[in-house]
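Case study B.
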Amino acid sequence: MAVKRPSGPQGSLILGSANQFRDDEPNFLLESVKKYGDLVYFRLANMHTYLVGHPDLVREVLVTQGDKFEKARLDKQILGKFLGNGLLTSDGDFHKRQRRLAQPAFHSKRIQNYAEVMVDYANKIMAGWKDGAVVDITEEMMHLTMLIVSKTLFDADAITGSGDTAVAIANAMHDLQAVSNRDYQRGFSLPSWVPTADNRLRNKAAAQFNQVMDQIIVGRRQTAVNGQVEDTGDLLSMLMLSVDEEGEFMNDRQLRDEVATLFAAGHETTSNALSWTWFLLAQHPDVEAALHEELDRVLAGRQPTLADLPNLPYSLQIIKEAMRLYPPAWILNGRTALTDVAIGGYTIPKGSTVFVSPYVMHRLPQYFDEPDAFKPERFTPEIEKSLPKFAYMPFGGGTRVCIGNAFAMMEAQLLLATIAQTYRLAVAQSEPVPYKAQITLIPENGIQMRVVMRETAVSPTSELAFA
Ligand code: HEM
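Model:
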């Protein structure tokens, strides 16, 4: 019997809508929902794709019927090549076990210890800036969040020759992500043994990354006392100390996959959130002035601490609104239906792919008036509470919701407060700043910004240690 499908863009006979999708993925999806409604069907070559564009349907896919889906094969193929079977790419019982084992590392008490590290590194980055100089803010933010994730994940400073180690890991990760982005563009990923230039680059980078990670893990095991590794305060210690119901620890391979996953998922996302925040602030002097007022009133020249965050609500609203307009994870990993699934009055046949896109949800006028305008006032607690769940969803939802959500929000708020206390950032280029939808939503060519010291600037201090 013919499948009854929701309507959607027709596309061409062979490629379906692949070319239109590739031209501008986020807006292709957004316009499709606006034109065809809450559930859209289209084909990307031979991939039967359903896009959900209503908060209730998002809930169906991620929560109510979440167990009828798994991560799509293409995502597992591409990301799995360097993240192995880590939290982002695994499924089913294995994912459940790993998530339970990793959860204690993200306990609020634990991550709160990282607040000082975050502020210290922001100061360290600013120490390299000169008043009035132009920097590529995307590079600066990427470097900053990379330093923070290396420190909080595996205490990079403590590793002998840590400067080189951190650079080697960062370079390897950069190459791995670049190759993965190109695979997504192509829409397929050749097996690793096929000797293409990209495969060679990926295999080399993966080997480098794995070698460093293995060294770190072996080093930790060697210093264990009575089989118990020492808790050095970082996330890796916690992952190594965690046991499942059977009393089993993660083995070295699992640890490596999880560390790679946290490293990859945990810095480019936050860095993009901040880059877009600086860009938006520079274009909205009224918002910038209100931010400065809040920082000066609450901190009065002090470095921000964890305890200050509840008293800086406007800073938080700015970050939330920037992530609404430019959600770093503009689309969740595709979901493959494991069985026929009834959603929104249609049956999504087994094997089809379902897309959920924070970018689409965040720009729907039903939930956000003037959806393209930057208005942090939307995120006062009262207004935010009135939004339907899943109309705003930068961290996804359900059992696969971002495990680093609280970490990322604390980091973004602290970095914004620390830097905005000292510098104003102004756009220093006449060219427009388009986005590029890669694994994350990045400013395509970076953003040149002039850093100008504020009169009320605090002098940066730096002492890097866990609290
Ligand atoms: C602003 C920053 C961030 C954003 C916007 C973000 C967004 C997301 C989203 C949307 C997902 C769900 C993906 C899906 O359902 O397909 C996710 C998952 C994940 N994120 Fe984040 N993330 C951020 C920061 C972080 C940080 C700082 C970490 C760790 C240190 C992290 C680690 C992870 C992991 C491990 C997963 C997979 C969770 C699972 O499936 O169990 N993320 N993130």
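The chain has one domain: 18-453. The remaining cases will be described in the next quarterly update.
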